[in-house]
Amino acid sequence: MPKFNFFPKVNFLAYIKRIKIKYNPCGVYNDNCRKLIHHIEAKQKKDKFLNLEYKLELIDYNEEPLIEIEMLNSKIFKYWYSDWLTGLNYMIFKKYN
What pTM value is reported for the model? Predict the structure, then answer.
């Protein structure tokens, strides 16, 4: 029996208008920021999401990484490192699924 994909997965970047990432590349706990930057800057993603605006900002070692997201409906969410994974995944699941 053939497999059908009636409900394809939607990339969360499709719901984002603007994203600002503040992180320190030499910091200890910045893996999530780095993964997000690689996800955004992939050539395939840049070609697919042309209207996505993003800004990368380097910070001091003592500052905490911050991810600020503005959705298409102009709601703004701020996530510090500690609640990045749980917060964003929960928000996207709750709002758009």
Answer: 0.67
